[in-house]
Structure formats: C-alpha cells, structure tokens
Amino acid sequence: MAYEPDGEDRLRTAASGETPSGPPRPHPSAPQASPPPRPGLSYAPAAPIAVVPPAPGTVRLSRTLWVLGFVAGLAVLVGSFLSRDGHLERLRGVVDRMSPGGDAEAISTAAGIVFWGSLAALLLVIGVEAVLLGAAMGRRGWARWVLVPLLAAHALVTLLAAAFLVPEGDSANYVLLLWGAQLLLSLAGLILLFLPASNAWLQSRRAR
Fold it and tell me: What is the mean pLDDT of residues 8-35?
C-alpha cells in the first residue's frame, strides 16, 4: 500500500521546497544567472573613401595626342607588314650592293633580319611608351620623366629604321609624313604633362 503524506509532511515539504517525488525546487528568492554583457558601442570612424580628382584638360589632351601618335606609328608598321615582300626584295638589293658577290641565302637572311628587326624595334618602343602613358594617367609622375629619354630613343630608332622601311616611290612620302606626325604628336603630349595643371594633378597622389 502506497504511503500518502499527511498534512504535517506536506507542510514540511512546502517549507523545504521539496516535492514528494523529486529533488528540491529552487527558492524564488535564489539569485539567477545574469546574461552576458552586451558589447560596447564602437565610435571609430569609418575609413575615408579616396576621391580621385578628375584629370585636367591638359592631361586629357596629352593622352589624346599620344594615342593619335600611336595610331600613326602603327599604321606604318601595318603597311610595312602587308607590303613585306616588296620590302624584302628591295632590302636584298641593298645588302647585295653593300657586299657584292655574297651568297643568295645569306643575303635573304640579312634582309629578313634587318626588316623584322626594324619592325620589332619600333613596335617595342611604342609598347613601352603606351605602358608609361598608362602609368602617367594613373598619376605616377615618374612616368613622364621616363618618357623624355624614351621619346628621344624613339626618334633615333625611327631614323635608323627609315633606311630600311621607307619604300620607293610616292608611298615613301606617306611613311615619312606618318612618322613625323607621330613624333610631333608625342612631343606635344609630353610637353602637356609638364604644364602646371598637369603637374598639380600628378602630385595630388602623394598629397593623400
């Protein structure tokens, strides 16, 4: 027969916080576990967004002149490549006159080296100038100083290549005109990069 607590047992159980069938219950006045503290507010300012100042008109005009010069120079290279057979035939005659009685295969090889070497040299100079112009457009002032001796070297390479890439006849005038336009446009674009407005824009990168 199951035991049933009497009234005295019920009072004792209620006073001690125990139940007849389980462990003691926590007293209502017992301290409760406090929640973890909330993280404090951060007053650190956000990182500033760098504002790139727009390029002045002198810089934009310089870039346009350089690009037009590149187009003029590349037009000569493309025309020389398309008419390479005539150039190689003419150069074989030039090499033969310089060293008469030479082997035909050696003359053809020398003519090919001169022709392709001239094209590669001009293309390399234009490519390096394009890279430096891109650096200058990224507000790297040192690039314009490197362009000064490079443009002088470009003029020297053009002068040497003219002895091998200028065709005969009326088309020679167009080649010389395009080369002259390229050098003049590049020189004008280089001068524009040294004007006060361009100089202030290029130096603003270091002032950030």
Answer: 53
Q: What predicted TM-score, i.e. pTM, was given to this entire model?
A: 0.72
- Cα 88 from Cα 28, distance rounded (Å): 106
**Residue 117: which of 172, 167, 186, 163 has the closest Cα?**
163
The rounded percent of the chain whose pLDDT value lies above 90 is 52
Largest CA distance in the chain: 138
Length of the chain equals 208
Calculate the alpha carbon distances from 24 to 14, 101, 143 in Å. 10, 121, 84
C-alpha 47/C-alpha 125 separation (Å) is: 41
DSSP state of 22: B
Please give the single-letter amino acid code of residue 145: W
Concatenating the DSSP letter of every residue in 45-63 gives PPPPPPPPPPPPHHHHHHH
Q: Do 62 and 189 form a contact (C-beta atoms < 8 A)?
A: yes
Q: How large is the C-alpha radius of gyration of the chain?
A: 42
First-last CA distance in the chain: 92
Element (H, E) at 146: helix 142-165
